[in-house]
Amino acid sequence: MKAAGYSSKNYSWLIPLGVALYWIGLFSLSHFTGKPVREWLVHLGVPALEQSFSDAQLVGLWCDESKAGRDPYRQPPIDGDGRILRMNYPPLYFGFGWLGLGKEAAFLYGILLAAAFALSATWLAGPCSKGCACIWIALLCSPVCVFACERGNFDILVFFFLSLSVAVRSYAFLAGGLVVLAATFKLFPIAGLAAVFARSGRGVCAALTGLVCFGGYLFFIQECLPFIFGSLSSNVSCAFGSSVVPNQLGRPEWAILFKIALLIGGCCVGIFGLVRAGVSEPVCQERASFAAWIGVPIFGLLVLSGVQFDYKLIFLLFAVPAAIELASGLNATLRIGARIWIGLFFFYSYWMFFSGEACLRNFLLKQAVALMLFLLSCFLFGAIAKPAIQRFLRSYHLSS
Question: Which of 21, 8, 5, 25 is nearest to 133 (CA)?
Fold first, then answer.
């Protein structure tokens, strides 16, 4: 089956070129107008801060504190505004201090992270046509994706490792090891082991081994877990998740009802997608399917976990190759669903460019788009997962 978006010529090289031209244009505007880059980013819908690569600078500050003999968990630094900057990352990040990361070197790390994001997204896209490359460029230059680069957030490093796992998916233990490595930095990527498990055979063994290793890692850092989970954001601006609307409405106790409703709704539409998938052949190529098995479970976990900044939507990029294929497929239901999914992804990614969250109406509309994106992701995932489920059932002699 030839994938939609693929052609005899590979135009994936246009992706890093397009992203590079975006940033060159941005810095050129800043140079010729005298306005700082931050102002232009804000005009483009990116919630940029005065301080560039603020997340990388914060990690650098924690590394400096650790090298000075202070514990950023129990003795957190305080910024000039009196805010307590308690560390909420695993202690593995202290290793960056030995790789030169400090507050002074954070700018270089931010540049490297932004470059790594563009390159890993190009790997993820794989061989593609001009039209497919344009879709990727538009997504990577959207306010949501630029948001991650502007903050210098280490979710990009996680994205990089997960992209590598797609590239080495034929080697189950190596792919699983990369997923676990990504999870040691941010924990939630462990949901991506679903992709390894879905390959059956050695994949099941590799996934179970990865879970055991991850469990051992959690045991090793158990003293830090209260700080990691205890400082999760209750922010509702530039965020999505099951707790965002309840928090905004001043009813945080409703969050559990939202989680249950989303879980039940996701399962139902996933089953519908499973039923609507064809039986003659997989709905998309193996590479795109593996990537979706990484991205959708991670996105689902993020939505159900509570509140997440918008830049975490970058993990849904792993479902884009499959969505592009389904959007040109023969199954009418999946084709329509995939096209709506792509539209919603673009709509949410560019929301801050043409609108805001100042009024409750706009806020609720944005969150409604995010929830529809979640449900449609579950629907498409159900269709993509059908071959793996059938293969799993046959392996254990449970199919009819």
Answer: 5
Q: In the predicted model, is pLDDT for residue 211 greater than 90? A: yes
Q: Where are the alpha helices (DSSP H) in the chain?
A: 14-33, 37-43, 54-67, 106-125, 130-140, 143-151, 155-167, 172-186, 193-197, 202-220, 225-230, 244-248, 255-276, 286-305, 320-327, 332-349, 351-354, 360-395
Identify the pLDDT of residue 32: 93
CB 385 within 8 A of CB 178: no
Q: What is the mean pLDDT of residues 145-167?
A: 96
Q: What is the pLDDT of residues 331-346, one digit of tens each?
A: 888 999 999 999 999 9
Q: What is the 3-state secondary structure (H, E, C) of 159-213?
A: HHHHHHHHHCCCCHHHHHHHHHHHHHHHCHHHHHHHHHHCCCCHHHHHHHHHHHH
| CB distance 304 to 262 below 8 Å | yes
Distance between CA atoms of residues 297 and 295, nearest Å: 6
Please tell me the distance from the alpha carbon of residue 164 to that of residue 176, in angstroms, as a whole number: 11
Rounded CA separation 172/206 (Å): 6
pTM of the model: 0.93
Domain ranges across the chain: 14-395
Q: What is the pLDDT of residue 399?
A: 45
